[in-house]
Each structure stands twice: as structure tokens, then as C-alpha cells.
Amino acid sequence: MTPTPDVHYDYSAFRSANPRSILIVPVVNNSVDVNASDYFLSAISKPVAERGYYVFPVNMVKRVMEADGLADANMVHSADPTRLAALFGADSVLYVSIERWDAQYAVLSTSVTVEFTYVLKDGHTGETIWQSAQKIVYQPRAGGSGNAIADLVVAVVAAAVTKANPDYMPLARQANQATVIRHHHGLPAGPYRPEEYQKDMERY
Fold first, then answer.
1. In the chain, where the domains are located
2. What is the pLDDT of residues 60-74, one digit of tens each?
3. Whose C-alpha in 46, 120, 148, 149 is 20 to 30 A from the C-alpha of 2?
């Protein structure tokens, strides 16, 4: 469920934990696209790092966890977060689940949808210190040429192309960026963003 933008999130647990580093673990993929989790991982690190946190390289994290017997993302998400954090010396652990990553075809239009849930846990106590959700739907629209038949053909072709080869990555990047910087519900600035660190209380 996407939080109401004008409702202030309770940051007391986050402020108490005061994380400096974030371990992003393998993503649970509840969508029908088997490749969604790998694509998503390539889009999540940058916005989190830009908020001022050290982010452990996601591919290295995945390999280490596989070597530690945690090859399945569902297994990772059900593991003790303090154990996961201890493997890397992380202050916090970010869990993401992909709820939607699909395209729905309706002859004249195709809707491309991505939907994610985010949960950040304290690496020392295992307590949830922040959570959010984001859903973005994109429906490409062809411009009107004034010729109804030509516009209809263009719309059908555009819908078919989107269905055959939907580009999810811009939506994934947009969703992650919106989630991280959202007023009153995003991630407060971390210590590696000193111009805002612990000075953004009005926004968060």
C-alpha cells in the first residue's frame, strides 16, 4: 500500500538507529518476469547512495550470500537481519519485494506497471526502522495526427511494440528515486550527505 504523501512517517526508530551503511539484499520477486529481480538490483543502489549512505555492492553481496548458503531470496528475507548485517559489518539491511513488473495489452494500448515494497531493518536489533511502497504505471500515448485511421494504426502498433519489448528500467529508476526522496516518507539524508545530514527534520 502506497503511503499518503502528506502524512509524516514516524522516524523515531530510524533516528535512534542512525544507520551509516545499508546492505541491500537479493530481491524477492513476486512478479511473472523471472529476470525482474536482477534488473531491479541494478537500479536501486544509486538513489540510496545519493541520499548519503554507504551501499555495499549488490553483486558482491549476492555472491557472498550464495556462498553462505543463502542462494534463495525468500530464504534471505526470512533470515535473521542481524546475522546478515554481521556478514558485512552493515548498520542496516534493506529488503525489497517486487509485487508487479508486467505489461497488460489491450489492443489499442499497453500499460506497463512496476510495484515495489521496501523495508529497512536495524542491523543490530533487527527492528524495522523504515518502510515504504511505490507503484508506477506507464501507458504510452501516440499523438493525434488528425487522421483517425492513421492514428488507430499507430496506436495498435505502439501497443504491440510496448507489449513485445516493454522497458521497465526507467520506471524502476523512477520508483526508487521517488521512494527515497519523498517528503515526509523518504529516507532522511545520511552521513555522506553532510549538507543535509541531521538538518532535514522539517522534511522528515
1. 12-102+113-135+167-181
2. 999 999 998 898 999
3. 46
The CA radius of gyration of the chain, in Å to the nearest whole number, is 19
Q: Using one digit for the tens of pLDDT, what is the confidence trace for 18-41? A: 999 999 999 999 998 888 998 899
* Contact predicate 184/151, CB 8 Å: no
Q: Taking Cα atoms as reference points, which of 140, 129, 135 lies closest to residue 176?
A: 135
Alpha-carbon span 178 to 185, nearest angstrom: 10
Residues 90, 17 contacting (CB under 8 angstroms): no
CA-wise closest residue to 89 among 123, 130, 114, 131: 123
Q: Which of 47, 91, 12, 89 is nearest to 193 (CA)?
A: 47
